[in-house]
Amino acid sequence: MRAFVTFLGCKVNQYETELIIEQLERAGIVVSPQPIDVDICIVNTCMVTNEAARQSRQLLRKLKRMNPDALVVATGCYPHLDVQSIMDCGVDLVLGNKEKKELAKHINEWFQKKEQKALVSQPDYEIDERVNSFLADRVRAYVKVQDGCDEYCTYCIVPLARGRKIRSKPAEVVIQEVKHLVSLGYREIVLTGVNLGRYGRDIDSNLARLVRRLLDEVLGDFRIRLSSINVQDISDELIELFENNEKLCPHLHIPIQSGSNKILKAMNRNYTVEQALALFERLRSRDPFFSITTDMIVGFPGETIGDFEKTLALVKEAMFSRVHAFKYSERPNTPAARIRQKVPPEEKDRRMKLLREIAEKVAADYRAASVGKIRTVLVEMSKNGVSYGYDQYYVRHEFVSVGTNALRKVVVKKPNGTGVVSQVVDLEKSMVD
Q1: What CATH code would you report for 140-368?
Q2: Are strands 374-383 and 407-416 parallel, antiparallel or unpaired?
Q3: Tens of pLDDT along 28-64?
Q4: Taking the domains of the chain in order of start, what are their residue ranges?
Q5: Is the dihedral of CA 105, 202, 11, 150 positive or negative?
Q6: Average of pLDDT values for 17-30?
Q7: Which pLDDT tens digit goes with each residue over 375-427?
Q8: Minimal CA–CA distance to 2: which of 53, 48, 50, 36?
Q9: Which CATH superfamily does the domain covering 374-432 fall into?
Q10: Average pLDDT score, the chain
Q11: What Cα–Cα distance (Å) separates residue 105 from each residue in 20, 332, 337?
Q12: What is the pLDDT of residue 433?
């Protein structure tokens, strides 16, 4: 049998999609890179926004049309929100996040009866899975170390799908997984989780201790990057690890969501703008170029023009290297959905456009300040003598070089679109000599 597997959404979903592929391969099912002439189509869905849910449904319907006789499976987060709307897309088998861990078994059972079926249980499972390799990315590997979220953001539906109990992967399992991936040649390891900063709270540990052990115990030419982490979870112990440690990327994605304390309180984000700025100052006291990327929501219920202007002011002051902007998306049964003061769609569009313009200008200024600086780039692709990759600050570079999957020292020459143009340090020295 042949199967096509794809996903929508976050890095956790990407990691778990690799686990699905490995399950299928162990069961003797060939995984195809294309959704044609296959017996099984699997979509690891997302539902964090209305748009993500719509895209999940659209993809499921498309795969069913392309492969009318194939088994179509929907798993991931969307089944925890609305099973029926997924089944209405012609899906044959609907599985929750817990069930995806035994997806091959459920597929085998379906082929015995061939009846439409849904299995969605509470996401309270322990995490101890390990990925062997990544088909989609040969230079960067994601390692899920945590699941579940015990925050209560008023707009967020993720705890419904991922559970409110923090569940951390044992440190020994993480270390062995990272050692294996580094031994295969992966040069960047990205630690990820649903609420990464809460890692270890259920096993008497914390994220800083885990990272320290990885830096001390895993040998090889590689680096570690941390994925999304909240303001209140970035400890002094974690900040200290960034100082003079080339293997830990000086970059954090810290989702701020708003520059207004009033809106942050309405979102139940549990920090203030002042606390966020103080944190940024501490990070940049270690490295003036410390890269901070963020998420911002525009049009949250009750957000006035004044509140939005505070968001713009924060973007300018914080010097974010990248801003992911989202229009507020109402999710069912969340406290925010009950707030009456809705922002009109056309006003959301106006604010989104303005935020993106200012964010792009700020990001361009950040990149321009790196001209003349030496950076370490992970070469991810080379084509026609030009290489592409991201540096430790998560800035995209292009430069004349050959080969991939190497960490190369470059000097930044000039900004270029959303990245920079650089030159390999050794090449520049040879040209000078």
Answers
A1: 3.80.30.20
A2: antiparallel
A3: 999 999 999 999 999 999 999 999 999 999 999 999 9
A4: 2-119, 140-368, 374-432
A5: positive
A6: 94
A7: 999 999 988 889 999 999 999 999 997 777 789 999 999 999 889 999 999 75
A8: 36
A9: Nucleic acid-binding proteins (2.40.50.140)
A10: 94
A11: 11, 32, 38
A12: 34
Compute how many other C-beta atoms are within 10 angstroms of the C-beta atom of residue 214.
23
For 268-324, write each residue's pLDDT tens digit: 999 999 999 999 999 999 999 999 999 999 999 999 999 999 999 999 999 999 999
Three-state SS annotation for the chain: CEEEEEECCCHHHHHHHHHHHHHHHHCCCEEECCCCCCCEEEEEECCCCHHHHHHHHHHHHHHHHHCCCCEEEEEECHHHCCHHHHHCCCCCEEECCCHHHHHHHHHHHHHHHCCCEEECCCCCCCCCCCCCCCCCCCCEEEEEEEECCCCCCCCCCHHHHHCCCCEECCHHHHHHHHHHHHHCCCCEEEEEECCHHHCCCCCCCCHHHHHHHHHHHCCCCCEEEECCCCHHHCCHHHHHHCCCCCCECCEEECCCECCCHHHHHHHCCCCCHHHHHHHHHHHHHHCCCCEEEEEEEECCCCCCHHHHHHHHHHHHHHCCCEEEEEECCCCCCCHHHHCCCCCCHHHHHHHHHHHHHHHHHHHHHHHHCCCCCEEEEEEEEEECCEEEEEECCCCEEEEECCCCCCEEEEEEEEEECCEEEEEEHHHHHHHHC
CATH code that applies to domain 2-119: 3.40.50.2300
pLDDT score at 123: 82
Q: What is the pLDDT of residues 162-181, one digit of tens each?
A: 999 999 999 999 999 999 99
Token duo for residue 376: 């370490």
Q: What's the pTM?
A: 0.92
Distance CA 404, CA 407 (A): 9
Instruction: Say if residues 249 and 377 touch (Cβ distance below 8 Å).
Output: no
The confidence score (pLDDT) of residue 432 equals 38
Phi-psi region of 416 (alpha: psi -120 to 50; beta: other; left: phi over 0): beta
